Amino acid sequence: MNLGVLVSGRGSNMAAIVKASADGRLSSRVAVVLSDVAEAPALALARAAGVPAEHVATASARPKLRREDSDRFVGRLRAFDVDLVVLAGFMRILGRPFFEAYPGRILNIHPSLLPDFRGLDPQRRALEAGVRVSGCTVHVVTPRVDEGPILAQASVPVLEGDTVEALSARILAEEHRVYVETIRAIERGDVSLSGGGIDGSLESSRGNA
Ligand code: GRF
């Protein structure tokens, strides 16, 4: 598969996927990295790894991408023949053109055990809620933010005296592992993605292997 990775910031998940592709753990390749933020460190990181990386300027700064801005992203993904869109710290909400172009073919990783702590600052909210276990979730993206079918999860303990930074780092290490493993499972057909997606009625199923 040709992967298109969307980023807004640091890019450590993107880098983990690029590395897994480079060392043969993934047969897919990262065809392009796109960011809504021109100065996102992730863009420089991708270029240094030899991966095409582009800033996609958006007309509106609102969290939800307008149609024309979504169209611009989709146009670049199509230009690089992307089959699977991978959100990795992309801080915008996708507009309808994404779901029309890539129904059931968009993944996201979220640093909580969904459905708990959807939305922003999940690690801080997990600490505030006093949970003893947190983690990360890879899911299919639908128009309802952080609500698509769950493909994989990994849990980590919340330790006595944890800070947001310490918990986030513990979760992040699992993110890098579980995101690569999920893409690998999709490559092998162990996780299949199918369905429409625009109304959130998308189906995903797991194989037994
Ligand atoms: C990760 O914690 C991811 O789960 C969340 O945003 C963060 C991105 O980190 N969606 P990075 O840019 O991949 O380092």
Ions, cofactors and other ligands present here are: 5-O-phosphono-beta-D-ribofuranosylamine
Mean pLDDT: 93
**Fraction in beta strands:** 15-25%
Number of helical regions: 6
- Helical proportion, percent range: 25-40%
Cα distance spanning the termini: 20 Å
Radius of gyration, CA atoms, in whole angstroms: 16 Å
Q: Which stretches of 5+ consecutive residues score pLDDT under 50?
A: 195-209
Which term fits the overall shape?
globular
Largest sheet: 7 strands, mixed
Order of helices and strands: EHEHEHEHEHEEHEE
- Look at the helices and sheets and give the structural class: alpha/beta
How many beta-strand segments? 9
Strand order, sheet with most strands: 3-2-1-4-5-6-7
Your description of this structure?
With 209 residues, this protein is an alpha/beta fold. It contains six helices and nine strands; from the N terminus they run βαβαβαβαβαββαββ. The protein has helices at residues 12-22, 41-48, 67-79, 96-101, 122-129, 164-188, and strands at residues 2-7, 29-35, 53-55, 84-87, 106-110, 133-140, 150-157, 191-194, 203-206. It has a seven-stranded mixed beta sheet with strand order 3-2-1-4-5-6-7, with helices on both faces. A two-stranded antiparallel sheet has the order 8-9. α4 links the parallel β4 (84-87) and β5 (106-110). The two termini are 20 Å apart. The chain binds 5-O-phosphono-beta-D-ribofuranosylamine (GRF). 5-O-phosphono-beta-D-ribofuranosylamine (GRF) is lined by residues 7, 9-14, 42, 88-89, 109-111, 136, 172, 175. Residues 7, 9-14, 42, 88-89, 109-111, 136, 172, 175 line the site of 5-O-phosphono-beta-D-ribofuranosylamine.
